[in-house]
TrEMBL record:
Membrane-spanning intervals of the chain: 24-46
Gene Ontology biological process terms, A to Z: Golgi to plasma membrane protein transport; intracellular protein transport; protein localization to Golgi apparatus
Protein name: Signal recognition particle receptor subunit beta
Keyword annotations: Endoplasmic reticulum, GTP-binding, Membrane, Nucleotide-binding, Receptor, Transmembrane, Transmembrane helix
Membrane topology of this protein: Single-pass membrane protein
GO molecular function, one term: GTPase activity
Protein backbone atom coordinates (compact mmCIF):
# COMPACT_ATOMS: atom_id res chain seq x y z
CA UNK A 1 0.00 0.00 0.00
CA UNK A 2 2.81 2.42 0.88
CA UNK A 3 4.43 1.82 -2.50
CA UNK A 4 1.31 2.91 -4.37
CA UNK A 5 0.99 6.53 -5.46
CA UNK A 6 -1.36 8.45 -3.23
CA UNK A 7 -4.03 10.64 -4.74
CA UNK A 8 -3.39 14.24 -3.66
CA UNK A 9 -5.98 15.75 -1.42
CA UNK A 10 -6.89 19.41 -2.07
CA UNK A 11 -8.64 21.71 0.27
CA UNK A 12 -11.53 23.87 -0.89
CA UNK A 13 -9.18 26.87 -1.08
CA UNK A 14 -6.77 24.92 -3.31
CA UNK A 15 -9.57 23.88 -5.63
CA UNK A 16 -10.78 27.48 -5.91
CA UNK A 17 -7.24 28.66 -6.77
CA UNK A 18 -6.88 26.00 -9.49
CA UNK A 19 -10.27 26.85 -11.00
CA UNK A 20 -9.43 30.56 -11.10
CA UNK A 21 -6.06 29.79 -12.70
CA UNK A 22 -7.71 27.84 -15.51
CA UNK A 23 -9.81 30.93 -16.30
CA UNK A 24 -6.81 33.29 -16.19
CA UNK A 25 -4.63 31.27 -18.59
CA UNK A 26 -6.73 31.83 -21.78
CA UNK A 27 -7.06 35.52 -20.90
CA UNK A 28 -3.27 35.78 -20.55
CA UNK A 29 -2.78 34.21 -23.98
CA UNK A 30 -5.28 36.61 -25.54
CA UNK A 31 -3.61 39.63 -23.93
CA UNK A 32 -0.17 38.48 -25.13
CA UNK A 33 -1.52 38.06 -28.67
CA UNK A 34 -3.03 41.56 -28.61
CA UNK A 35 0.26 43.06 -27.41
CA UNK A 36 2.20 41.34 -30.21
CA UNK A 37 -0.38 42.43 -32.80
CA UNK A 38 -0.33 46.04 -31.57
CA UNK A 39 3.48 46.04 -31.67
CA UNK A 40 3.48 44.87 -35.30
CA UNK A 41 1.00 47.60 -36.26
CA UNK A 42 3.06 50.29 -34.51
CA UNK A 43 6.30 49.13 -36.17
CA UNK A 44 4.61 49.06 -39.60
CA UNK A 45 3.24 52.57 -39.06
CA UNK A 46 6.61 53.86 -37.87
CA UNK A 47 8.35 52.35 -40.89
CA UNK A 48 5.92 54.12 -43.21
CA UNK A 49 6.45 57.42 -41.40
CA UNK A 50 10.24 57.06 -41.61
CA UNK A 51 10.03 56.32 -45.34
CA UNK A 52 7.80 59.35 -45.88
CA UNK A 53 10.21 61.50 -43.90
CA UNK A 54 13.01 60.63 -46.33
CA UNK A 55 11.00 61.58 -49.41
CA UNK A 56 11.81 64.69 -51.36
CA UNK A 57 9.37 67.58 -51.65
CA UNK A 58 9.03 67.94 -55.44
CA UNK A 59 6.68 66.73 -58.13
CA UNK A 60 8.92 65.15 -60.77
CA UNK A 61 7.73 64.94 -64.39
CA UNK A 62 9.22 62.15 -66.51
CA UNK A 63 8.52 60.69 -69.91
CA UNK A 64 9.95 59.98 -73.33
CA UNK A 65 10.63 62.79 -75.81
CA UNK A 66 7.58 64.42 -77.42
CA UNK A 67 5.15 63.00 -74.85
CA UNK A 68 3.96 66.49 -73.84
CA UNK A 69 5.86 66.50 -70.57
CA UNK A 70 7.34 69.99 -70.87
CA UNK A 71 4.00 71.33 -72.10
CA UNK A 72 2.48 69.87 -68.93
CA UNK A 73 5.20 71.59 -66.93
CA UNK A 74 4.44 74.98 -68.46
CA UNK A 75 0.70 74.41 -68.01
CA UNK A 76 1.16 73.72 -64.30
CA UNK A 77 3.67 76.49 -63.62
CA UNK A 78 2.47 79.24 -65.97
CA UNK A 79 -1.16 78.36 -66.55
CA UNK A 80 -0.76 78.14 -70.34
CA UNK A 81 0.78 75.26 -72.25
CA UNK A 82 3.29 76.28 -74.89
CA UNK A 83 4.08 74.14 -77.89
CA UNK A 84 7.67 73.20 -77.16
CA UNK A 85 10.61 71.62 -78.89
CA UNK A 86 12.52 68.80 -77.21
CA UNK A 87 13.89 70.09 -73.93
CA UNK A 88 17.60 69.47 -73.32
CA UNK A 89 17.79 70.83 -69.77
CA UNK A 90 16.04 70.28 -66.47
CA UNK A 91 13.22 72.78 -65.95
CA UNK A 92 12.24 73.97 -62.48
CA UNK A 93 9.20 75.88 -61.37
CA UNK A 94 6.40 75.93 -58.83
CA UNK A 95 2.65 76.06 -58.59
CA UNK A 96 0.09 76.93 -55.96
CA UNK A 97 -1.94 73.91 -54.98
CA UNK A 98 -5.36 74.73 -53.58
CA UNK A 99 -6.43 72.83 -50.48
CA UNK A 100 -9.63 70.82 -51.05
CA UNK A 101 -10.79 72.16 -47.69
CA UNK A 102 -11.67 75.79 -48.30
CA UNK A 103 -10.85 76.79 -44.72
CA UNK A 104 -7.28 75.50 -44.94
CA UNK A 105 -4.26 77.16 -46.58
CA UNK A 106 -2.95 76.29 -50.03
CA UNK A 107 0.54 74.93 -50.65
CA UNK A 108 3.29 75.96 -53.01
CA UNK A 109 4.90 72.88 -54.53
CA UNK A 110 8.05 72.68 -56.60
CA UNK A 111 8.05 70.90 -59.94
CA UNK A 112 11.00 69.37 -61.79
CA UNK A 113 10.78 68.50 -65.49
CA UNK A 114 13.34 65.84 -66.52
CA UNK A 115 14.32 65.96 -70.22
CA UNK A 116 13.08 62.98 -72.21
CA UNK A 117 16.05 62.87 -74.55
CA UNK A 118 17.50 59.36 -74.47
CA UNK A 119 21.12 60.55 -74.23
CA UNK A 120 20.72 62.71 -71.12
CA UNK A 121 17.60 61.63 -69.26
CA UNK A 122 19.28 58.89 -67.20
CA UNK A 123 21.92 61.32 -65.97
CA UNK A 124 19.36 63.97 -65.03
CA UNK A 125 16.96 61.42 -63.55
CA UNK A 126 19.71 60.03 -61.30
CA UNK A 127 20.64 63.54 -60.19
CA UNK A 128 17.06 64.58 -59.36
CA UNK A 129 15.41 61.37 -58.10
CA UNK A 130 16.10 62.12 -54.43
CA UNK A 131 13.94 65.26 -54.77
CA UNK A 132 10.79 63.29 -55.64
CA UNK A 133 7.75 63.25 -53.40
CA UNK A 134 5.65 61.99 -56.33
CA UNK A 135 6.22 61.22 -60.02
CA UNK A 136 4.07 61.87 -63.07
CA UNK A 137 5.13 59.76 -66.06
CA UNK A 138 3.73 61.23 -69.29
CA UNK A 139 2.83 59.06 -72.29
CA UNK A 140 1.86 60.16 -75.80
CA UNK A 141 -1.33 58.18 -76.45
CA UNK A 142 -1.02 58.72 -80.21
CA UNK A 143 2.41 57.07 -80.59
CA UNK A 144 2.60 54.69 -77.64
CA UNK A 145 2.51 51.61 -79.87
CA UNK A 146 5.45 52.80 -81.95
CA UNK A 147 7.36 54.03 -78.89
CA UNK A 148 6.42 51.18 -76.55
CA UNK A 149 10.00 49.88 -76.21
CA UNK A 150 11.44 53.28 -75.28
CA UNK A 151 8.53 54.03 -72.93
CA UNK A 152 8.76 50.65 -71.20
CA UNK A 153 12.55 50.95 -70.83
CA UNK A 154 12.17 54.26 -69.03
CA UNK A 155 9.26 53.00 -66.94
CA UNK A 156 11.20 49.88 -65.95
CA UNK A 157 14.02 52.04 -64.60
CA UNK A 158 11.54 53.98 -62.45
CA UNK A 159 9.71 50.90 -61.16
CA UNK A 160 12.96 49.11 -60.27
CA UNK A 161 14.48 52.09 -58.47
CA UNK A 162 15.07 50.81 -54.93
CA UNK A 163 14.78 54.20 -53.25
CA UNK A 164 11.31 54.71 -54.75
CA UNK A 165 10.21 51.29 -53.52
CA UNK A 166 11.59 51.89 -50.03
CA UNK A 167 10.02 55.34 -49.76
CA UNK A 168 6.77 54.28 -51.46
CA UNK A 169 6.90 57.13 -53.96
CA UNK A 170 3.48 57.35 -55.68
CA UNK A 171 3.47 57.19 -59.48
CA UNK A 172 0.88 58.59 -61.89
CA UNK A 173 0.97 57.39 -65.50
CA UNK A 174 -0.66 60.19 -67.48
CA UNK A 175 -1.94 59.14 -70.92
CA UNK A 176 -1.70 62.47 -72.73
CA UNK A 177 -3.07 63.71 -76.09
CA UNK A 178 -6.45 62.02 -75.75
CA UNK A 179 -8.03 65.00 -77.53
CA UNK A 180 -6.33 64.63 -80.91
CA UNK A 181 -8.49 61.91 -82.50
CA UNK A 182 -10.79 59.04 -81.63
CA UNK A 183 -8.25 56.38 -82.62
CA UNK A 184 -6.06 56.90 -79.56
CA UNK A 185 -5.30 54.00 -77.28
CA UNK A 186 -7.47 53.90 -74.16
CA UNK A 187 -6.08 53.70 -70.64
CA UNK A 188 -6.80 49.98 -70.48
CA UNK A 189 -5.17 49.22 -73.83
CA UNK A 190 -2.10 51.31 -72.91
CA UNK A 191 -1.87 49.56 -69.55
CA UNK A 192 -2.09 46.15 -71.23
CA UNK A 193 0.49 47.14 -73.86
CA UNK A 194 2.96 48.30 -71.20
CA UNK A 195 2.42 45.18 -69.09
CA UNK A 196 3.31 43.03 -72.10
CA UNK A 197 6.41 45.11 -72.84
CA UNK A 198 7.52 45.03 -69.20
CA UNK A 199 7.00 41.26 -69.10
CA UNK A 200 9.43 40.88 -72.00
CA UNK A 201 11.79 43.37 -70.37
CA UNK A 202 11.90 41.31 -67.17
CA UNK A 203 12.69 38.15 -69.12
CA UNK A 204 15.44 39.86 -71.10
CA UNK A 205 17.07 41.33 -68.01
CA UNK A 206 16.76 38.04 -66.13
CA UNK A 207 18.56 36.26 -68.99
CA UNK A 208 21.27 38.92 -68.97
CA UNK A 209 21.81 38.46 -65.23
CA UNK A 210 22.01 34.69 -65.71
CA UNK A 211 24.69 35.05 -68.41
CA UNK A 212 26.83 37.45 -66.39
CA UNK A 213 26.49 35.62 -63.09
CA UNK A 214 26.72 32.13 -64.55
CA UNK A 215 23.62 31.00 -62.71
CA UNK A 216 19.88 31.39 -62.75
CA UNK A 217 18.93 35.03 -62.96
CA UNK A 218 16.13 36.70 -61.10
CA UNK A 219 13.20 38.25 -62.94
CA UNK A 220 11.62 39.80 -59.86
CA UNK A 221 13.22 43.26 -60.03
CA UNK A 222 9.66 44.43 -60.59
CA UNK A 223 6.46 42.49 -60.29
CA UNK A 224 5.78 39.34 -58.34
CA UNK A 225 8.46 36.79 -57.54
CA UNK A 226 7.88 33.50 -59.32
CA UNK A 227 5.29 34.95 -61.68
CA UNK A 228 6.29 34.94 -65.34
CA UNK A 229 4.05 37.79 -66.48
CA UNK A 230 4.03 41.35 -65.17
CA UNK A 231 1.01 43.33 -64.00
CA UNK A 232 1.06 46.76 -62.39
CA UNK A 233 -1.07 45.39 -59.55
CA UNK A 234 1.83 43.08 -58.62
CA UNK A 235 3.81 46.05 -57.29
CA UNK A 236 2.69 46.56 -53.71
CA UNK A 237 5.18 49.15 -52.45
CA UNK A 238 4.45 51.82 -55.08
CA UNK A 239 0.94 53.16 -55.56
CA UNK A 240 0.44 53.35 -59.34
CA UNK A 241 -2.48 55.18 -60.94
CA UNK A 242 -3.46 55.73 -64.57
CA UNK A 243 -5.38 58.78 -65.84
CA UNK A 244 -6.07 60.18 -69.28
CA UNK A 245 -6.36 63.76 -70.47
CA UNK A 246 -4.77 66.41 -72.63
CA UNK A 247 -2.27 69.15 -71.89
CA UNK A 248 -3.03 71.33 -74.88
CA UNK A 249 -6.30 73.19 -75.19
CA UNK A 250 -8.11 76.38 -74.29
CA UNK A 251 -8.39 75.58 -70.58
CA UNK A 252 -6.50 78.35 -68.79
CA UNK A 253 -5.50 77.09 -65.37
CA UNK A 254 -5.55 79.30 -62.31
CA UNK A 255 -3.12 77.33 -60.13
CA UNK A 256 0.15 78.45 -61.71
CA UNK A 257 2.56 80.19 -59.34
CA UNK A 258 5.74 81.17 -61.11
CA UNK A 259 8.36 79.73 -63.40
CA UNK A 260 12.01 79.85 -62.40
CA UNK A 261 13.83 78.96 -65.63
CA UNK A 262 11.74 80.24 -68.51
CA UNK A 263 14.75 80.54 -70.78
CA UNK A 264 15.22 76.76 -70.61
CA UNK A 265 11.92 76.04 -72.38
CA UNK A 266 12.36 76.22 -76.14
CA UNK A 267 8.99 77.42 -77.39
CA UNK A 268 7.67 77.77 -80.91
CA UNK A 269 5.91 80.91 -79.72
CA UNK A 270 2.42 79.43 -79.99
CA UNK A 271 0.21 79.37 -76.95
CA UNK A 272 -2.72 77.02 -76.97
CA UNK A 273 -5.63 79.47 -76.69
CA UNK A 274 -7.02 78.29 -80.02
CA UNK A 275 -6.94 74.58 -79.22
CA UNK A 276 -9.71 72.56 -77.64
CA UNK A 277 -9.92 69.57 -75.36
CA UNK A 278 -7.46 70.41 -72.58
CA UNK A 279 -8.18 68.28 -69.54
CA UNK A 280 -5.82 68.14 -66.59
CA UNK A 281 -8.37 67.85 -63.80
CA UNK A 282 -7.51 64.21 -63.11
CA UNK A 283 -3.81 65.06 -62.86
CA UNK A 284 -4.49 68.03 -60.60
CA UNK A 285 -6.83 66.02 -58.36
CA UNK A 286 -4.20 63.28 -58.02
CA UNK A 287 -1.51 65.79 -57.01
CA UNK A 288 -3.90 67.32 -54.46
CA UNK A 289 -4.46 63.93 -52.82
CA UNK A 290 -0.73 63.30 -52.53
CA UNK A 291 0.19 66.67 -51.04
CA UNK A 292 -2.73 67.13 -48.67
CA UNK A 293 -2.83 63.65 -47.21
CA UNK A 294 0.52 64.13 -45.45
Amino acid sequence: MDSQRKTPVYSNADREFIDNGSDVLPLTIIMAFLVVFATIIILWWAKGRRAAAHRGECLVLCGASNSGKTALFSRLTMGIAKRTLTSMAVNRGSMTLQNPSADRPSKEIHIIDIPGNLRIRQRDFSAEKSSAKAIVFVIDSTTVKEDSKDVSDYLYDILSEKSFRQQRIPLLIFCNKQDINNDNETIQSIRHLLENELTMKRRTRASSVAVHQGKGGSNDDIGQTGKDTFEFNDIKDIKIDFVDGSVLGNERTSYAKHYDDEEDIISTGDETDGDTGANLKKVYDWVQKIWFKS
